[in-house]
Amino acid sequence: MLQQTDPKLADMIAREANRQDTEIELIASENYVSKDVLEANGSILTNKYSEWYPGRRYYGGCHIIDEIETLAIDRAKELFGAEHVNVQPLSWSPANMAVYMGLLNPGDKVLGFSLDQWGHLSHGHPMNFSGILYEIIPYFLDKQTEEVDMDELERLAIETKPAMIIAWFSAYSRDLDWKRFREIADKVWAVLMADIAHIAGLIAAWIIENPVPYCDVVTTTTHKTLRWPRGWMIMCKQEHAKAIDRAVFPGLQWGPHENLIAAKAVAFWEALKPEFKDYQIQVVKNAQKLASELQRHGFKIVSWGTDNHLMLVDVFAGFEVTGKQAEHALEIVGLSTNKNMVPYDTRPPMNPSGIRIGTPAATTRWMGEDEMVEIADIFAQTIKNFKDEENLIKQRERVLKLCKQFPING
Ligand SMILES: *Cc1c(COP(=O)(O)O)cnc(C)c1O
Asked: Which of 56, 144, 189, 374 is deepest in the core (most CB within 10 A)?
């Protein structure tokens, strides 16, 4: 239809679809949703205003919308074993700001992971609300193991007495000790919050430990590993439910996007099926295979491996190629990745030492461990000879061949 009424835009969508079809998506935070999720996302539910929550809406005509939102909430509760869920947050800011607003006062101290070691501008950046309104105290990785230094975190917590401790991750490849996080928070009477945007899919499939029982609040994207539509949700203990719901509406947002909430409900349904667990198990197997293959090619992997869906490759350490050069060369051959700082990086954020890669999207295309061997080889040949155009053309052909063999939604 769009092809006839707005060919200009239809052409752009077609070109983007072709880009997605002919590149291997290794950006750890991206994935392909199912056709069912797309259908709900693009449905007529977008027409409806429904401020406030099921059963107490401001506008009339919300009785069916109420059923949809309640269904999404119930499925999310079942998936994560959460006491209370709010599925309305549109993105990172309202979801996480609702936690700060609902449970803290401006100026309160918050212990959060060091920015330069995660390569993300949320929680604590001086230009983000969190850094403007709250005093963020960073904790770090251990320099030797490149894993979270829990003893140092405990020492810092006792010394600074934060109102909240945040566990959050955008490039961390190791499991976390949630029980220890809880013990430290209890010692200093702090709220414990986890932002599981990246690992939520693995948690929903119960293949890595679920932090929901340990935390006061857990926020997550519904996209990324989860393979759900764009958006966020907040899970919390019943005692915080009122404060969180009020902070989302009317504290931060007005009309919820019910088409997205319906798409979340569809995705939660998919995630409750056994195939979802198989998928997430394969995501981790693929990541571990990719990491070991890259190590075989001489690359340094941060923390020497991965327990989840992603890894950070220090491309500068092995081959003196910068993250920016590597990202660019990989894009030419059709491996989509992003540059990322490595722990204690000596290079600047816009041209750091690392490349972050993840396996959720490739695994959705049904690529398995054999394909990871091939991808690791393409990655290595591309980076080791990134200035050789003929080499890049050769690697591009290998990527195209894989894409043809493993179509999206195939
Ligand atoms: C993905 C991510 C964000 C950004 O989320 P949006 O949905 O793009 O708003 C922020 N913080 C963390 C930790 C993330 O993983």
From this structure: 374
Report the domain count for the chain. Answer: 2
> Is residue 312 scored above 90 in pLDDT?
yes
d(CA 50, CA 247): 17
Asked if 149 and 244 sit in the same domain, the reply is yes
Q: Tell whether ligand 1 has an atom less than 6 A from the beta carbon of residue 221.
A: yes
| Of the residues 220, 240, 271, the one at which a domain ends | 271
For ligand 1, whether the C-beta of 120 sits within 6 Å is yes
pLDDT digits over 370-403, tens only?
A: 999 999 999 999 999 999 999 999 999 999 999 9
In a shared domain, residues 128 and 204: yes
What is the distance in A from the centroid of ligand 1 to the CA of 398?
32
pTM (2 d.p.): 0.94
Instruction: Please tell me the residue having the least CA distance from ligand 1 atom 11.
Output: 122
Query: Exposed, middle or buried: residue 89 (CB in 10 Å: 0-12, 13-18, 19+)?
Result: buried
Q: How many residues comprise the chain?
A: 410
Q: Closest by alpha carbon to 149, among 96, 106, 111, 93?
A: 111
Interval 58-72: pLDDT, tens? 999 999 999 999 999
Output phi, psi for 120, to 5 deg.
-130, 145
With CA atoms as reference, report the closest residue to 343 among 57, 113, 59. Answer: 113
- Determine the Cα–Cα distance for residues 57 and 249; give it in Å rounded to an integer: 11
**Domain final residue pick, 217, 241, 271:** 271
